[in-house]
Amino acid sequence: MAQVRNKQVLLKNYVTGFPKESDMEIVEGSITLKVPEGSSDVVLLKNLYLSCDPYMRILMYKDTPLSLGFQYSPGSPLTAFGVSKVVESGDPKYKKDDLVWGVTKWEEYSLVPSAKIHLLFEHTGMPGMTAYGGFFELGCPKKGEKVFVSAASGAVGQLVGQFAKLTGCYVVGSAGSQEKVDILKNKLGFDEAFNYKEESNLDAALKRYFPEGIDIYFENVGGKTLDAVLLNMRSHGRIPVCGMISQYNLSQPEGVTNLANLIYKEIKMQGFIVSQFYPLYPKFLEFILPHIREGKIAYVEDIVEGLEGGPAALVSLFSGQNLGKKIVAIAPE
Amino acid sequence: MAQVRNKQVLLKNYVTGFPKESDMEIVEGSITLKVPEGSSDVVLLKNLYLSCDPYMRILMYKDTPLSLGFQYSPGSPLTAFGVSKVVESGDPKYKKDDLVWGVTKWEEYSLVPSAKIHLLFEHTGMPGMTAYGGFFELGCPKKGEKVFVSAASGAVGQLVGQFAKLTGCYVVGSAGSQEKVDILKNKLGFDEAFNYKEESNLDAALKRYFPEGIDIYFENVGGKTLDAVLLNMRSHGRIPVCGMISQYNLSQPEGVTNLANLIYKEIKMQGFIVSQFYPLYPKFLEFILPHIREGKIAYVEDIVEGLEGGPAALVSLFSGQNLGKKIVAIAPE
Known about the structure:
2 copies of one chain form a homodimer.
Chain A: E1 3-11, E2 24-32, E3 42-51, H1 55-58, E4 79-89, E5 99-105, E6 109-113, E7 117-119, H2 126-138, E8 146-149, H3 157-166, E9 170-175, H4 178-186, E10 192-195, H5 202-209, E11 214-218, H6 223-230, E12 233-241, H7 261-264, E13 268-271, H8 281-293, E14 301-305, H9 310-319, E15 325-329
Parallel strand pairs in A: 8-9, 8-11, 9-10, 11-12, 12-13, 14-15
Antiparallel strand pairs in A: 1-2, 3-4, 3-6, 3-15, 4-5, 5-7
């Protein structure tokens, strides 16, 4: 029975403050390329691409407050979304060489529950569903509305901005470098974009871009940005809360002081995890596939080659050094 | 034409910090008891009861962030909800001696737009609609769910607690004195109640009363209480945001640090103003009237006699010295 090398990225310890590469370690294990006899609910995957996402930081807390159906523990490989090829399936729903996406592990080969994966259709996946569900289901956009997206060049933000434009909204994004701002305006079709690091007064910046206020704020960062946004929301505004990446590494999160505006402006602020939108997957495909075929959706990816580069790739999310969706490519298809 | 005395409570100046009686002044004006010729959209009211409500503090800010269709300005009488008797109506919808509730002014007689008032049916009004709309429409309670109400003995909180019990929920209230706690438990039917001033650790207090977490938090106070609640919400919890009375008088509001739990627990937090629920008024009456007739709704009122007592009554809301719904009775019916 084929026993092969299985390189893995393990969590070394629970993390306090900003994650460092040394919080993870790369080890060489081995794996038997066979689904255990009689296991009809697992698949053996060869992992092709691994996704780096901010929520992974939250799973690195001891006693994480996030329940996604999987947790991290020191000594085990990171669990995360990825694109994989089926090596062998116990579940008749999948067959050898199927391309799938779903919850897998940071290693070359993974044995995972078949309930956690889906067949891959074209360019879809977790950030797409996150942007779609958060923006359309919770943001309830209407043509002509004013939309602000933070971390706008990130995996989710870049899609939200494009979905907003497809809906006929005015959309402004914030990001952390001039290069990202240029991409937002020139490649991703945002009406305006600004570098939040260059703005000494975020409230004033928002008033400049939204003299009449914001209808939808797609929240990816939290903290000071949220506080400034709350001062600039319009009546009956919506704030889908996708992430608060500025806060995950702080032992004492920044205080948000302007929440009373939720009342004054009758604002709905709603946190979500992408899984609540999985039932909408067919509707999402119906929406997105024609746009993809017509070349109307751009997607900026930042791909690192090799599992060894995984820890650095993940850490880069929190210093803002990624440019677009961060992916670790670990095997040729 | 009858010209009579019209005592008024004027705002003297915009308010910083806690409101004081001296921020208001009582003056004696006069009024002609006649609707101006040809005015078919106004009514002349004799005010009977005036409602003291926390939102009035927000209207005392210079450049108030709250748009209710009326504002305060120094030298003018306070505008607020009240119960009044029609003296004369230009609008054929009302006739002399009708009892009405709606937006009137802190004075003996008021000429107001007829669009701002409603006929009075039994014991209904603004706090009832606020509790009803916030709890049922935004809280979406289900039998067996766990509900926490802050400022629970206040005008709105006491009704929310009773509506929660009528829905088959477990409900705990917080308030600022032992006397209020006793009323919550013994008169208003809350399952549990506690004095937040006696709790050095609100997180621990909430874990004691909600070992499995909170499904619905009816938010009246903001600040530290909200921060502790966010640590104790259950997955898919709801937070209708009715008020944040602990914050209105602070020049620098307290920072809320645990908002990332909105994501982890997929929480919907929604601010509201009662007027968005006015279309539900018939549905509200259908719900509440049978319960009132069967004696199933208790209501604790704290009534002050005379317009002169108005400023002190209003100020008492912010020191927690009121016990239940604070009302200024200014004329015998």
